[in-house]
Amino acid sequence: MSEVAVAVWSSNQHKFVNVSYKRVMARKSLDEICHYAEVEIPESERSLFHKHGIFQVRYLSPYITEGRGEYNGKYGYHPVTTVYIDNVDEETEKSSHGIIVSGRSKARDIIDSKWSDTILGQPTLLQILRKIAGEFGFDNDDVICLPTTAGDITKTVNSFSWENESPWAKLLTIADAQGLIITSNQLGGLYITQPARGTCDWGFAIEEGVNVRHPRRSESGAEQFHTYTVKASGGKATVTDPTCPNKRKLTINLTEFIIDRDKLLRRAKTEMLRRREDKITCTLSGWGLTEAQIKKLGGTYHKEIFWEVNLLTPVKLPSCKVNANMLISQVEYTADSSTFSCDVTLVKPEAYR
SS3 for 162? Predict the structure, then answer.
């Protein structure tokens, strides 16, 4: 029987220690570099949680082949996310004492920092990301490209500098221009990959009446514009969204970058597609593959078992008139002492390609 565990880093024991919890939630999104997690804990566990500490959400199964030593061979475990604690909030009422701990991935420190620097020598995007992350305690092995067998899949960058700001916006702009995305991994590191990666033969599929509880479709035009213009180094590209009949305009200025018109046009198109906000959210039982599917893998090393962002997944939802491959743009996992499920948000893959 699979379980969800929460473990907090113990500086005294120099290892993660399992704790009891009332409820846990973890969220991953393609539009947010950091994972976010929060856990509600009983008062008995309060002394183990401190701001800037670390906790990890784990998935336990008898069919996971890694990490079995930590659970006396009964379970193996995969980390779902690893976060640094931002807040410990306590609320006391007459009959209860609620404690909510929340945090984000390690990349929060880079995103929240503001400073100035320049990286010279026409490095690749991966080399730039490793240099910046290295200043915040990331090793080179913590910042990788997927698939790992492909080496450095990024291209060179002519110049990269920033002035009293976080470099993240510029890193993401370069990644988008190269047709790539940057996000956090399950251990708190960072990876660069191509958008809309496939699910191999692991068994991921979303099908109404099989594993979907509540499909919900939503469309929003609140952040949508009629024309999108992207400018950089004297060049510009403009696209028009025929699905948005108003006259709103959005202009994005990319400073200090030399980007050809094709890349500017790509940036304008992806901005348009993402702002159309046509998405489907499905509540699914479990956090990924079933126990039978995990067992069938014959071993879980280097294999995906969770619903994860950026997975291109077969979707059959007759009530939403969908029968196509869709991209997972967000996953929100929830669990309490007896049940666990997740909300998966699906979009058309063109918005990230």
Answer: strand
